[in-house]
Write a structure and sequence with these properties.
By secondary structure, the chain is of the alpha+beta class. About 40% of the residues lie in helices and about 20% in strands. The protein folds into two domains: about 1-90; about 110-345, BirA Bifunctional Protein, domain 2 (2-Layer Sandwich). The chain is built from eleven helices and ten strands. It has a seven-stranded mixed beta sheet. Helix 1 (about 5-15) packs antiparallel against helix 2, helix 1 packs parallel to helix 4 and helix 5 (about 110-120) packs across helix 10 (about 320-325). It is rod-shaped and about 135 Å long. The relative contact order is 0.10. The structure holds phenylalanine.
Length: about 350
Amino acid sequence: MDDLEQLVERAEREFGAAPTPAELENAKARFLGKAGSVTELLKQLAALTPEQKKTRGAQINQTKQRIESALLARRQALADAELDAQLRAEALDVTLPGRRRGGGGLHPVSRTMERIEAIFASMGFEVADGPEIETDWMSFTALNNPENHPARSMQDTFYVDLKDEGGRWLNLRPHTSPMQVRHARAHAARYKGCDPMPDIRVIAPGRTYRVDSDATHSPMFHQCEGLWIGQNVSFKDLKVVFTQFCRLFFESDDLQLRFRPSFFPFTEPSAEIDIAFGSGPLRGRWLEVSGSGQVHPNVVRNFGLDPERYIGFAFGMGAERLAMLRYGVDDMRLFFEGDQRFLAQFN
Ligand code: PHE
């Protein structure tokens, strides 16, 4: 084999061994560059006779062309391989099942709250919202709680490490009843000079907090407060409104309600409201769902209203309690553990 043939073979071998385009260009320089083998061969032509130059020159040119076409072939092969790899990396398997976005849903307690709001809204109640960190006055004093009432104690109420203007610790509201005071005072201010003042008819759903934790109590829970104050609002109206609410909420016409005498500092008289289902697994058992009563005159005064002219009722019910009864859940803690298997059942 002559030297030119060997050169072509070497070039083919080295080009073939170059794994990347960059290394291929280095290999190219060794053969076709300024100091490359082919260039060296061409330089040697100077020493030959014109006759020899002609044949040798033509042979070298042929050699050069063969090396160039080997280079082009290898360049193309590397480019093809790169494209193949890219296509493989970006391959789309259209037979794979689609990735679905997780189906979110409302928490059962949120559903319950929305249901409560919709029913009371249909009965002409406004829906009010207020702070969860409360002053001592709003949570207790304005609601006619005596200074030494047990609800004020550290065992029952969470306190925040901050004081109000009067130097009293702020609390995480232990019930939604402070919203009676906040809403009624805002209403009285808004309708100042309006005689008679339009009725206050409001519910206030929201989070509440107590130092309490077992199967039926959670340190954070939800209540919904209700308040109706006017010139002629009686216990009878409470019975009608609450009975209607329960029938709509539980979608049951054979529910019974019982108003069991009780005590709250902010209502007089006061009652616990119990319900009994006419059918289903809980049939015939009395179940407590809400505290209630006629708003105490001292509280009406703290609303900024004359208790001789304005009278009405309030109630405060536990939303988890209602959710448990409606959905047949027997442990309140399930609502707050965040277990998807439990929560997904409600959507
Ligand atoms: N705030 C009371 C509680 O948390 C419930 C209640 C509200 C009672 C309104 C009477 C009137 O237990």
